[in-house]
């Protein structure tokens, strides 16, 4: 087994933009799935898109789950540490300033993005969480998220990332000092394309601060 933390499938796209994007796919996706979002959210941004290293019935994920909606939290913590090490190595390899990433995660990718915030808050400056659930059933580890900005965009009809899940997650982030913007939509477990311009504007505010 390789000891190189960068030895996992990923795509790096350089760009002149000030805020590099970290793209994190949903269950069954890969490092190519969310690349089209770059054109909608920040066309000039450097982009690092990463594939999850866990397989569930052949489908890539970022961490194991015991069943739908119930996460293997020990594995989640280990995978968060692994992702943080990967980001540090990517910063060195690709010339990215430490901790300047804005994560953009969908579903399973959103869940590990929020867990990364709670577990390694210095790895990210911001996060866009799409169809996000609560990563830790009994509450996340202590974290100081002061200065971190998070956008949560969940569907009001999402059977997985329910209203209760959304409310709990937003509360946990705010309790730890994050500045949270909620951008709900009327759909289910997906991304509402009509909200992408507003997400893009939100990301531009990150670059200006």
TrEMBL record:
The keyword Hydrolase applies. It comes from Pseudonocardia humida. InterPro entries: AB_hydrolase_fold. GO terms for molecular function: hydrolase activity. The lineage of its organism: Bacteria, Bacillati, Actinomycetota, Actinomycetes, Pseudonocardiales. Keywords: Hydrolase. This is Alpha/beta hydrolase. SUPFAM superfamilies: alpha/beta-Hydrolases.
């Amino acid at each position: 087994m390789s000891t190189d933390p960068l030895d996992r499938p990923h795509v790096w796209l350089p760009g002149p933009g000030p805020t590099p994007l970290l793209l994190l796919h949903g269950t069954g996706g890969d490092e190519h799935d969310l690349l089209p979002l770059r054109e909608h959210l920040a066309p000039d941004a450097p982009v690092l898109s990463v594939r999850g290293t866990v397989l569930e019935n052949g489908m890539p994920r970022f961490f194991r789950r015991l069943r739908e909606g119930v996460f293997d939290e020990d594995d989640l913590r280990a995978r968060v540490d692994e992702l943080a090490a990967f980001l540090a190595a990517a910063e060195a390899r690709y010339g990215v300033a430490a901790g300047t990433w804005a994560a953009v995660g969908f579903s399973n990718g959103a869940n590990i993005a929020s867990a990364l915030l709670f577990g390694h808050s210095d790895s990210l400056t911001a996060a866009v969480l799409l169809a996000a659930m609560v990563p830790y059933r009994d509450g996340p580890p202590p974290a100081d998220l002061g200065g971190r900005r998070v956008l949560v965009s969940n569907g009001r009809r999402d059977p997985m990332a329910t209203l209760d899940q959304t409310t709990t997650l937003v509360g946990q982030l705010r309790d730890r000092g994050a500045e949270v913007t909620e951008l709900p939509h009327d759909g289910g477990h997906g991304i509402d394309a009509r909200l992408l311009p507003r997400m893009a504007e939100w990301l531009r505010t990150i670059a200006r601060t």
